[in-house]
Design goal:
single chain, mainly alpha, 16 helices
């Protein structure tokens, strides 16, 4: 496969996954904001969303303060924000258009219709009118895109590059979510009263569709260390770090070439660390340093994949 084609496929899936993850986090923040809380807590909740994508500086150039209206506008519809849902959906569609011949008709039509419909919803004021409904629509379109891809595409190299992009992006976003919610929320990780903790950690789980899964796996009250274990080490949790790395490795093996040996080795080492890791050991050493190291490793893996497969040789 031409490296240029592989690059478009890799990034179209990353952008769709990024749009979905942004919608998930915004929806939970919006729902949480409807509960009684202090002004400081509300501001910190919205600030953490900007921090997840490392967009504090860009946000500060355009907005004077942190509030729900400005953060949602910035993260959803702001064309100056490269990680906004608007720009992610547009970039996914443009990447799909560039490799139209490598996609099935159903995949292309899903991508194209998502972009056209999203623009229409923004023009009609869907965000200020009902943010949650718009976020659910974004999540649904991402699910639809993923389902159509799995259900209609030949499982060849094109398919595997799409899946590699999806799992790499999901691993990055899940790690950022865990880092912000466990470490940066109040700067110390201290617990609040039991009732508020329940709603807080329930919101974290719902942001990754993990609430029902947590109840099924642990069958007890929601505890931060169990939440961390579920989102980091459980291989059967679809959005956990372990699951994402395992699936990324499986797809990379299907497209391996003579240059990709080191990248495969590093992904395999990371998979082994997660497969045999224990949450008590991770917490004892420090969750924040662990996640910092993981995010750095994911960034390096992205660079390695680009070097091995995506960058046209000169």
């Amino acid at each position: 496969m031409l490296s240029r084609t592989a690059d478009h496929l890799f990034w179209l899936s990353r952008y769709i996954e990024r749009a979905e993850n942004t919608a998930r986090m915004l929806d939970i923040a919006y729902q949480t904001s409807l509960q009684p809380q202090s002004t400081e807590e509300a501001e910190q909740s919205w600030r953490s969303l900007v921090s997840i994508s490392e967009l504090n500086a860009l946000y500060g150039k355009k907005y004077a303060s942190i509030n729900s209206r400005d953060v949602m506008e910035f993260m959803v519809a702001d064309e100056s924000n490269p990680s906004s849902i608007f720009n992610c959906v547009r970039a996914a569609r443009e990447n799909a258009r560039a490799v139209r011949g490598a996609l099935t008709t159903e995949v292309w039509e899903t991508m194209n219709q998502t972009w056209l419909e999203f623009r229409r919803l923004l023009r009609e004021g869907a965000l200020p009118r009902d943010p949650s409904q718009l976020f659910e629509w974004v999540k649904y379109r991402s699910h639809l895109s993923r389902g159509v891809t799995v259900g209609t595409m030949l499982q060849d190299e094109a398919f595997h590059f799409i899946r590699i992009g999806s799992f790499l992006e999901r691993a990055d976003n899940t790690a950022r979510l865990i880092d912000v919610k466990f470490y940066r929320q109040d700067g110390s990780g201290t617990d609040r009263d039991a009732a508020r903790d329940f709603y807080y950690w329930s919101a974290v789980l719902r942001s990754v569709s993990g609430f029902e899964i947590y109840r099924k796996v642990y069958s007890n009250v929601i505890q931060p260390d169990k939440v961390a274990e579920l989102l980091i080490l459980r291989p059967d949790m679809p959005r956990s770090l372990s699951h994402c790395v395992t699936r990324m490795l499986a797809n990379l093996r299907r497209v391996a070439n003579p240059q990709s040996g080191e990248t495969l080795r590093r992904v395999g080492r990371l998979e082994a660390e997660l497969a045999f890791g224990r949450i008590d050991e991770i917490l004892a050493k420090g969750l924040h340093p662990f996640l910092d190291d993981f995010l750095a490793e994911v960034a390096d893996l992205g660079a390695g994949i680009s070097r091995d497969f995506l960058v046209p040789s000169t």
